[in-house]
Design goal:
mainly alpha, 6 helices
């Protein structure tokens, strides 16, 4: 890979280099922290969520039967997967599950709401999908439990 030779703001290059090892960790922790409350809504009814039975009913209405199974799977991917992402543990398997889930999410939200989030569209799902793909490819990064345990390069 060619190194950049003409940065837009040369004075910031030393800071970029110091922060580079933390970039993937920042994204991973941020994504996990966003997913956790969504899963808590689905599984436990926290933060104004419908809880597991309301979530199951939603998945049944959406045509994902049995709703209890699929609603629980999605809630677990968000809640427990989010926790694992924050820790950087099993990052690639979580990213794979999240990628599969978000493909369905993009399909559903894009079909029903178009692109924009304010119209219940796909833009948020697309962003999560892209982040999940990054972690599927790159792993949890330098500051992850996966790396500390010697499970990822």
């Amino acid at each position: 890979m060619a190194a950049y030779t003409r940065p837009y703001i040369p004075a910031l290059v030393p800071y970029y280099e110091k922060c580079k090892p933390f970039a993937l960790t920042l994204l991973r922790v941020g994504l996990g922290a966003i997913l956790i409350p969504h899963g808590a809504q689905k599984l436990f009814g926290l933060f104004g969520g419908a809880g597991i039975s309301g979530n199951a009913a939603l998945f049944d209405r959406l045509g994902y039967a049995p709703g209890m199974l699929w609603g629980t799977v999605v809630g677990c991917i968000e809640f427990f997967g989010g926790l694992l992402l924050v820790l950087g543990l099993f990052t690639r398997p979580v990213a794979l599950a999240l990628t599969i889930f978000m493909i369905f999410g993009v399909h559903f939200t894009g079909k029903s709401g178009g692109f924009f989030w304010l119209n219940r569209g796909a833009e948020f799902s697309i962003l999560i999908l892209l982040c999940a793909i990054v972690f599927l490819i790159r792993g949890g990064g330098e500051y992850s439990l996966d790396r500390k345990l010697g499970r990822e390069v």
